Amino acid sequence: MKFIKKHWGNIAFFLVIGLLIFPPTAIPIKVFITRVFSFSPSEVEAEDRAVLDTYDWQLTNLEGETINFSQSEGKVVVLNLWATWCPPCIAEMPSFQKLYDAYGDRVDFYFVSSEEATKIKKFLQKKKYNFPVYLESQAPPKMLQSKSIPKTYLISKSGMIVMNTEGAADWNSETVHQILDKLLAD
C-alpha cells in the first residue's frame, strides 16, 4: 500500500496511457474527447472559394449500384470522406445524422468511404445511422481529393465550395443550418 501511495502519479499516468493504447478503450475515449472539442465548421471566405470544375465521379452505394456524383450538379451537396476506424470521423457522425434528418430531402448527402461494404453496413446498423453511404469506384475529382479524414465539403448549387473542413466538427450547429438555408434559397 505504501508503494501505491508513493508512486500514485506514475501509476495513474501509465493507466491512462494504457487505456489510450488498448483498442477496445482507446477509440471510445478518443471519440469522446473529439466530440467535446468539436465546434461548428467555418465558411470559406467568399473571395477564396473555389468552384468545382467537374462532378464526374463514379461511386457505388452499399447495395452495389453504381451512381455518378454528377447527378448532384446544380444541387446543394454535403460530401464527407470518412472511415469506420477513424475516431474523429466517428465523433462527428451523430451531428451528421441530425443534419441529414433535418435536410436529407433538400440537400444531397454523400458519405464516402474506401472500406468494405460489409464493415460499413455493420457500423451503420450498430449506430442506427441511415444517411447515404457510398464506396469509391474511382478517385474523386482533384478538387475533392484529400490525404486526411474526415474531410467535408459543402457545395453550393453553382458548384462553389462553401465549406472545406478537415477534422471533426459539429455539423448540426446553428451556423451550418443558416448556411444551408441560405444556399437552398439562392
Task: Describe the overall structure.
With 186 residues, the protein is α/β, with parallel strands linked by helices. The protein has two domains: 2-35, no CATH class; 41-185, Glutaredoxin (3-Layer(aba) Sandwich), CATH 3.40.30.10. 39% of the residues lie in helices and 18% in strands. The protein is built from six helices and seven strands, in the order H-H-H-E-E-E-H-E-H-E-E-E-H. The protein has a seven-stranded mixed beta sheet, with no helix packed on it. Helix 3 packs across helix 4 (87-103).
Helix/strand layout:
Elements: H1 2-6, H2 8-21, H3 23-36, E1 58-61, E2 66-68, E3 77-81, H4 87-103, E4 108-113, H5 117-127, E5 133-136, E6 151-155, E7 161-166, H6 174-185
Parallel strand pairs: 3-4, 4-5
Antiparallel strand pairs: 1-2, 1-5, 3-6, 6-7
From the structure above, extract its key features.
single chain; 186 residues; alpha/beta; Glutaredoxin; 2 domains; seven-stranded mixed sheet
